[in-house]
Amino acid sequence: MLVVQKYGGTSVGTLERIRTCAMRCLETQRAATSLVVVVSAMSGETNRLIALSNQLLAFGHAVASEAQPNTATWVAPEKSGDHDHERELDQLVSTGEKVSAALLAMAIQDLGGKATSLVGHQLGLQTDRNFTRARIRTIDRERIDRELASGRIVVCAGFQGIDSDGNITTLGRGGSDTSAVALAAALKAATCEILTDVDGVYTTDPRIVPGARKIARMTYEEMLELASLGAKVLQIRSVEFAMKYGVRVHVRSSLNQNEGTWIVPEDNSMESVVVAGVALDRNEAKVTVSNVPDVPGTLANLFGRLGEAGIVVDMIIQNTSRASAADVTFTVPENELERSVALLRNVPFVADGRSGIETDRDICKISIVGVGMRTHAGVAAKAFSLLSSEGINIQMVATSEIKVSVIVHERYGELALRALHDGFGVGTPPSL
Amino acid sequence: MLVVQKYGGTSVGTLERIRTCAMRCLETQRAATSLVVVVSAMSGETNRLIALSNQLLAFGHAVASEAQPNTATWVAPEKSGDHDHERELDQLVSTGEKVSAALLAMAIQDLGGKATSLVGHQLGLQTDRNFTRARIRTIDRERIDRELASGRIVVCAGFQGIDSDGNITTLGRGGSDTSAVALAAALKAATCEILTDVDGVYTTDPRIVPGARKIARMTYEEMLELASLGAKVLQIRSVEFAMKYGVRVHVRSSLNQNEGTWIVPEDNSMESVVVAGVALDRNEAKVTVSNVPDVPGTLANLFGRLGEAGIVVDMIIQNTSRASAADVTFTVPENELERSVALLRNVPFVADGRSGIETDRDICKISIVGVGMRTHAGVAAKAFSLLSSEGINIQMVATSEIKVSVIVHERYGELALRALHDGFGVGTPPSL
Q: Which one of B265, B288, B318 terminates a domain?
């Protein structure tokens, strides 16, 4: 049986912890017979490398402006494309995982085990050429299979691959999770264990709701909808990958042997749980464009501009109360609010004063998620009733098959979270 | 015209210095049209990485002995071969040059230039599988040529290559010099510039002889014989490489534009200089084995043991004054003296008491070197006379076509150096 294990940055953050990981690797290999390990950079290392790059450039610009105090005559040198810079950033930052992979392999060897680290081109993990946010294309398992066949634990540098030209690419922040799941998929591993410094995924944020409970099993879809709960635990893209290839993911602590949270394909028993988790997201802001002309193409114009600028619009509500115009309300990430408004001001019917823009930062989004909703009627109604009995006004509603999200005033966020968590009995372990 | 430049660890030791290197790269590219740069790790980085590895293992052993205080019953785990450990060491240590290569490429881009860093497998530099001390086998210039053709400065991570299986190998301490010369040979570069923190190679150690002068031009053979002068400036193996492929090497300062020392194939004008340089080596010790039986095979027995143990024997003198036995005197590196003596005690004719061993650490070796010696008679005689007039007793002598070395008491080393340097007029610039 083959297991893929991924150790995060804090798990390999010191030499002592690397040794602890090495011991766990050896135990896992004994139990599973074959083990592929994916490691992140030692905690802080990726930031250190990025800071080196930033300082290098900042320093240069300080020198340039000092050497050329007359900014009116100073012409900035023509820069080569960002592509080139991002390529070098990947060449630089990917060294962090190479270091921790080599150290973990050494530690395993030192404990009497056999191990080999595979990095960059050795991994056989080929991606597209989108430096700093590459997507995996293919995995050539030949080298990994060969090392496994010789009884070695294969320690892979996470977060990185190569493009078809041998350039090093990275998969974006948290990319080691995606490396691990992708390798598990390619190698048809029994399990992909994500070892981290928390116990698993909780039904909601335990700092807000004391009754929050660790979820034993959930579906990929639930995990994706509960992104704000899981984002601290594993990269959401890795869940999409796991869903696509049916990889069984086990999120658990690297510090103990407790069972964590299994993220697995849906089975019948899961529908008995109506609400799997409740999430609070404070990082959204609300935008209302009033008096939008009710003619074809206006919404495409509005949201097209935001989409082209890479701004992710979340909830959209159109209120067509009047005959010839409508109010459109939607949410965007709070840190994109100003940029969004600037873009919207250029829309013709806003620019000419026909439509107005209102914004509200003091909102938050509460979501209840569960595959059981599909077979249980009245979940949304029950949610509204629970919030209403606490006197909480609902500003917006959006639903999907397995999710109900509401926007409420920010000051009611925690209260709403507790009301829904308790009201749906999410804190009570399911009887499977 | 293609130039290869190599920047050492101190030249890229800080972000500020990396920017200075970047400016020099751009100037060089403008003058030469094509530039390949080889970089070492930022000074201190290689040591930091090696220390991480050492601490990891030391920590493990401390834990092991603490956890198992009863050493009588504690069985050390079976270690995997050193081969595996050395492989990981190379995977680890090679990241230092990758970081500086990416940073230098970024700095060049930031100054408006075009650059790309090539590391590990991207370099096309294939070696044998002797981890930590690999030898270069072939260089595939395809990628480098392609990047040069696009007008880019190619910044290569020094010190590293890959074996035929894609494992990362390193070329030994100072290996970036060898990388640079090897790339210059493969690319048929006009020059290989070794940029360092000294001005060039001197006729002798300027701290001892005030009249020491920077050598403008010297041959590969002279540089090899003057290894102790050049060892601080460039890896001696790189000189052998340069000699083999006729690469013109220019050792110069990275801090100014002064001409440094050219190390080039011999030409006629060089023979007019009798002595190119004078070197003092304090790191040898003398061993005398007395009463060695004068029968075939004894010397092979004696030096075979030392050779198998990797001990480099330098000067050997056999004094066959008596009919049936001889005294054999030779020098070994001072830090190998004890090991040498231990090995010699096992030689049968020493073990049975027929031969005795004497050692002397208080010696040093003075060498005068110059290709001109081949055509100038009496150089050795003049050297002996110069030393004699200072009252310095010569203990051993060894000569080659272009070198005379003498062993004297350590206390006369500096005096002898000055006497020979001044006596041969080495401090006077040659009239070419």
A: B265
In one-letter notation, the amino acid at residue A253 is S
Which of B65, B106, B132 is the best substitution to test chain A (most A C-beta atoms within 10 A)?
B106
Residue B69 domain flag? no
**Which of B307, B399, B52, B354 lies closest to A107 in space, CA to CA?**
B52
Q: Which residues contact B323 (CB under 8 A, 6 or more apart)?
A: B294
Do B249 and B342 share a domain, yes or no?
Answer: no
- The minimum CA-CA distance between A338 and chain B, rounded to whole Å, is 29
By Cβ distance, the residue of A91, A111, A113 closest to B102 is: A91
pLDDT tens figures, B267-310: 877 777 889 999 999 999 999 999 888 788 888 888 988 988 88
Distance, CA of A334 to CA of A339 (rounded, Å): 10
**A102 contacts B88? CB cut-off 8 A:** yes
Q: Which of B246, B265, B284 is the last residue of a domain?
A: B265
**CA atoms within a 13 Å half-sphere pointing along the CA-CB vector of A94:** 35
Q: Do A102 and B79 touch (CB under 8 A)?
A: no
pLDDT digits (tens, 9 = 90+) for A349-395: 899 999 999 999 999 999 999 988 888 888 999 999 999 999 999 99
How buried is residue B30: exposed, middle or buried, by Cβ count under 10 Å (0-12/13-18/19+)?
Answer: exposed
Q: Find the mean pLDDT for residues A331-339.
A: 94
Instruction: Name the one residue in this structure whose structure tokens are 């920077």.
Output: B214
Tally of structural domains, chain A: 2
Distance in Å, alpha carbon of A143 to nearest chain B alpha carbon: 9
Residues of A in contact with B143 (CB under 8 A): 166
Determine whether the interchain pair A59/B16 forms a contact, defined as Cβ–Cβ distance below 8 Å: yes
- Identify all chain B residues contacting A143, using CB atoms and an 8 Å cutoff: 166
In DSSP terms, which residues pair with A239 in a beta bridge? Answer: none
Q: Is residue A55 part of a domain?
A: no
Q: A56 vs B19: CB contact, 8 Å cut-off?
A: yes
Distance from C-alpha of B129 to C-alpha of B87, rounded to nearest angstrom: 9
pTM over 0.90: no
The CB-side HSE value for A260 (13 A sphere, CA atoms) comes to: 27
In this structure, the answer to whether residues B246 and B323 fall within a common structural domain is no
A111·B77 Cβ contact <8 A: yes
Residue among A78, A99, A105 whose CB faces B95 most closely: A99
Helix (H) / strand (E) containing A291: strand A284-293
Burial class (CB in 10 A: 0-12, 13-18, 19+), B67: exposed
CB B6 within 8 A of CB B195: yes
Percent of chain B with pLDDT over 90: 71
Put simply, the answer to whether B106 touches A56 (Cβ < 8 Å) is: yes
DSSP state string for B321-354: -SSSEEEEEEEEEGGGHHHHHHHHTTSHHHHTSS
Query: Domain of A23?
Result: 2-46+86-197
Name the β-bridge partners of A405: A367, A398
pLDDT at position A213: 93
Residue with tokens 């049968």, as numbered in its chain: B348
Chain B residues with CB under 8 Å of A115 CB are 80, 84
